[in-house]
Design brief:
The chain is of the alpha/beta class. The chain has one domain (about 1-240): Aldolase class I (TIM Barrel, Alpha-Beta Barrel). About 35% of the residues lie in helices and about 30% in strands. The protein has helices at about 30-40, 50-55, 65-70, 85-95, 105-110, 110-120, 150-155, 180-190, 200-210, 225, 230-240, 245, and strands at about 1-10, 15-20, 20-30, 45-50, 75-80, 100, 125-130, 135, 140-145, 160-165, 195, 220. An eight-stranded parallel beta barrel has the order 1-4-5-6-7-10-11-12, surrounded by six helices. Strand 1 (about 1-10) and strand 2 (about 15-20) form a beta hairpin. The longest helix is centred in the first third of the chain and has 10 residues, at about 30-40. It is globular, with a radius of gyration of 16 Å.
Length: about 250
């Protein structure tokens, strides 16, 4: 079970949003590369990065910051936001990304995702961001009529490495992960699922260790880490099966 610390990039800085609204950005670090190093030093083994400007614009915007992050950490990095073509995917993987996350293009051009999975096996993740159970695209600015599980099932057998499922209504507001919807998704498909949106406290970390959550690959944490609501050492110990909380 992996806990993915998140670096969300806006205008080259490490920020967190509420409900995906760019106007609500709180800046946590002017130096994303330093933040990446800090997460590695705290014991995290992966890094989740989102180019927020890129997600809205439909092309990579924070490339320099992502490049600096890749140089600053030895941890594998997965990146989403504005990546829409095979050429862009190939470019990012050649620059050192472990995984590329495809969101809007997964709705608009599912065949491109399948082609990417064949071309770059094990290195393509699908980001499914939902509001009210329906998939949102273009940096969450547009809603679709597509259901979460309906979209996920399009990629069964395609070789998708993971699905990152975000409940937009909970993202950035520390209200707790939508475990019911996340586990329903994980049980509906064979693709590993990563929970995202709302991770708030150690209670959510403990919830990750429950039997019905063990189908998940892990969960993403942003604001709770930055605000100090979750202690990295304690959280990672729980996920390793150590500590009193893990035994409850």
């Amino acid at each position: 079970m992996i806990l993915f610390p998140a670096i969300d990039l806006k205008d080259g800085k490490c920020v967190r949003l509420k409900h995906g609204d760019m106007a609500t950005a709180t800046i946590y670090n002017d130096d994303p590369a330093a933040q990446a190093r800090a997460f590695e030093e705290q014991g995290f083994e992966w890094l989740h990065v989102v180019d927020l400007n890129g997600a809205f614009k439909g092309q990579s915007v924070n490339s320099a910051a992502v490049g600096a992050i890749l140089k600053a950490t030895k941890n594998p990095v997965q990146l989403g936001g504005g990546i829409r073509t095979l050429a862009q995917i190939e470019d990012w993987l050649e620059r050192g990304l472990a995984r590329v996350i495809l969101g809007t293009v997964a709705v608009r051009e599912p065949e491109l995702v399948k082609e990417a999975c064949k071309t770059f096996p094990g290195r393509i993740a699908v980001g499914i961001d939902a509001k009210g159970g329906k998939v949102a695209v273009e940096g969450w600015a547009e809603a679709s009529e597509l259901g979460v599980i309906e979209l996920a099932k399009k990629f069964e057998g395609a070789g998708v490495a993971a699905i990152i499922y975000t409940d937009i209504d909970r993202d950035g507001v520390l209200s707790g992960i939508n475990w019911d919807a996340t586990i329903d998704l994980a049980e509906a498909v064979s693709i590993p699922v990563i929970a995202s949106g709302g991770l708030a406290s150690v209670a959510d970390i403990v919830r990750m260790t429950m039997p019905d959550a063990r189908r998940l690959e892990g969960a993403i944490s942003g604001r709770a880490l930055y605000d100090g609501r979750i202690d990295p050492a304690e959280a990672l110990a729980i996920l390793r099966g150590e500590g009193a909380e893990a035994e409850q």
